[in-house]
């Protein structure tokens, strides 16, 4: 669950890659009209009279700079703005006035130091699909309670016993690739989905899982659709599937209560009596966790496959590290590993692989930014951030700044042999809304990479280069690659 989340985590970055021009225009007209109407009737506050707005440009009336953003790689848009105006600048996109922040100090100010002044913000349609009581849309005591419940299920002490089960999912996933041309991103999404379901429901809850999967696939197709709830539209189908998902989760809850099974998964954490969550709250948060866990983790794994293919020296170092773990287990030096399954301890012997994951998350920066909204007028570095304006900490700009990471465009895992400077590396967000599933995300990546690098080979030869955005940055076309099972360990 890399959310960017997710924060998961999950985020409204998806708005910046909507395929529907109609929806874009609809957003612009409706949001711009409401904003213009409200601001025309609101007297400026004392802070607004005294403090200047950040430098920048607001673009055309109502439309703002949305089309400039859409006409190029969004990261180029942000980089050019930063170069011209500095680390804090204003713009107007998707009908909203915005302040962009690209310094570690500014990101910390919004996400940590003064987090209470900036609330998470999402499209209303996204809230309806995931569930208005999901953790992503909350603040205050209810958010803190939900976060504690998720962390209880996803912290190292809770997930260390799931390594063997995650390994089974990884081996099943990889076995279907042998000799096939696969869409790497789609396959990684399937893997991340299955790990998420395992972590939420445990390995024994199989009665309703296939039905749940099919409903979720329908819901997912509507995430970026125009929010018109008419029969035949993607949004209507998605909302119908969302209702069915709630009913499926209710059946699972009833079955779990009837069986009185003792479990250590996320569902058990949500169901604990003293937490007093309603079934509707549980359903909203389960669907939200699936959303946060799937695309982000799959995106990172896809980029890792690409980078390992492009840097054979890095791949060889990872392979040697993983093969050493296999060699020790085969020699029987670890008496607890007679079945040669991976253990939690094994995943702590993978420093090179962990650095590859870290560097991939920095270079790819799956979560390029996150949205917040100022709940009151805020002063920062002599500038005014007006109440109601969107505020976007730009993680990718921070991760690609030469002040924070020398030669930032170079893929170099060795840079993580020492810890980065504070607040310069935020692949999982920062503060109280940072991704609570980051430990699980790292674990499932390590397990898959262990078997991928020791059992399979692949080549990027013939693969088209390029990046697509939809909503996360991905290798072009999801990185189609043919994987082959190695006939022996020395056959690389």
TrEMBL record:
Q: Name the cofactor(s).
A: heme
GO BP, one example? Answer: sterol metabolic process
Broad enzyme group: oxidoreductase
- Gene assigned in the entry: LOC120279579
Give the bilayer topology. Single-pass membrane protein
Q: What does this protein do?
A: Involved in the oxidative degradation of abscisic acid.
Which pathway does the UniProt entry assign to this protein? Plant hormone degradation; abscisic acid degradation
One GO MF term, please? heme binding
What residues bind heme, as annotated? 435
Q: EC no.?
A: 1.14.14.137
* Reaction(s) the record says it catalyses: 2-cis-(+)-abscisate + reduced [NADPH--hemoprotein reductase] + O2 = (+)-8'-hydroxyabscisate + oxidized [NADPH--hemoprotein reductase] + H2O + H(+)
Localization (cell): Membrane
Classify the main location: membrane
* Any one Gene Ontology cellular component term annotated for this protein: membrane
PANTHER family according to UniProt: ABSCISIC ACID 8'-HYDROXYLASE 1 (PTHR24286:SF10), CYTOCHROME P450 26 (PTHR24286)
In its UniProt entry, the species of origin is given as: Dioscorea cayennensis subsp. rotundata (White Guinea yam)
Family the entry assigns: Belongs to the cytochrome P450 family.
Q: Which UniProt keywords apply?
A: Heme, Iron, Membrane, Metal-binding, Monooxygenase, Oxidoreductase, Transmembrane, Transmembrane helix
What is the name of the protein in this document? (+)-abscisic acid 8'-hydroxylase
The record's listing under Pfam families reads: p450
Tell me which PROSITE patterns the record gives.
CYTOCHROME_P450
